[in-house]
Amino acid sequence: MNKKEGLFFIFIIISGLYMFFLIFYFYLDERIFYPESYDKKIIIIGAIAFTINLLLFSFERCRVYDKIKIYSIRINLLEALLIAILIISISAIGGIIVYNHYIAAKEPRGEWSIGIYHSESYEPMNFSGEHLNNPVLTRVHISDIKAKFVADPFLINENNIFYMFFEVVNTITAQGDIGLAESNDGINWSYKQIVLDESFHLSYPCVFKYNNEYYMIPETSAVKAIRLYKANNFPYNWSFVKTIASGRNFVDNTIFYFNSTWWLFTETGNNDVLRLYYSDSLLGLWIEHPRSPIITGDANIARPGGNVIMFDNRIFRFAQDDYPYYGNQVWAFEITNLTKQEYNEKRINSNPFLKGYDNWNIRGMHHISICRLTNNNWIAAVDGYGLP
Questions:
Q1: What mean pLDDT comes out for the span 370-380?
Q2: pLDDT for the residue numbered 53
Q3: pTM, rounded to two decimals
Q4: Mean pLDDT of 255-266
Q5: Which of these, 56, 113, 337, 352, could form a disulfide with 344 (CB 3.0-4.6 Å)?
Q6: Which of the listed residues 83, 106, 129 is the one where a domain comes to its end?
Q7: Domain holding 300: CATH number?
């Protein structure tokens, strides 16, 4: 091996280590099945560097073999295979060591679960965890499939019964399904079953009522679309109605009705781009707002983090904070101006919403669903994880 080959070989190892470290990091960080959470730029850079150096190394070897008259395609393929095995082995070991010593120390990871909070104030911003034993729902409660974790809860109160729709990550299929739990008091929950299972990943089941019918817009970014479903026998028997929008990686779609108009927030970047769409009819044409994207380049406040709340003609949205790591806390914003031409909002306070109230979600939280019971009584479902 000459000096050029040696140099190219070193670059191949470095870029290979870089790529495989990213893969192991996403896996150990529980994001391997969430491509929308990847930083695509750093992956593309690594892939380009690896490919270029592999080609340069191969061309250099070809010239050397040709000069000494023993060039053989079989020999080159064998060496390439051995090099690939070496890179994979070193990368695997290196990725695990680096993760264990640095990433895990910085961000100890537990499992995502769901908890409940109550508020006995006029405004839905003063929740308490007193007299509650959180989390109320974990993966061990899922009885019809083997679950890795539960997250993204959405609450509905219908005829004095609480319904909770949430993401269940299936350990066997490695994709998200939509689960259902019920409660008579909002405190004690009983898991029922998976109510929506597609051939692709589902999460963030944004459920809402319209004309006495219940609809759901789950996250279906795996098929680059925003898909609308309807319950034929609420809370069961959900069927696909139509595609609202397509062509982008729409993440955590959040719909609400205000001022005779339907509005929809969605994230389409690397957790840092918030878009807004509107329509005069739920089943009609959806138009992107002229101020959209509302937020660009800010992973702290862009990605939606739960259902929009309206009371006293005021509108509140929640945003998950995904920097420096995915799903670490939630912020609350009040939308101060919402028309088909204008959009303005302000942050509610300088503290994240409800994070770390107790130990079960002290390390992470990225979702909240608030449901009003009476004038001075609210309930909230949140997800999160504590120390492992």
A1: 87
A2: 66
A3: 0.74
A4: 97
A5: 337
A6: 106
A7: 2.115.10.20
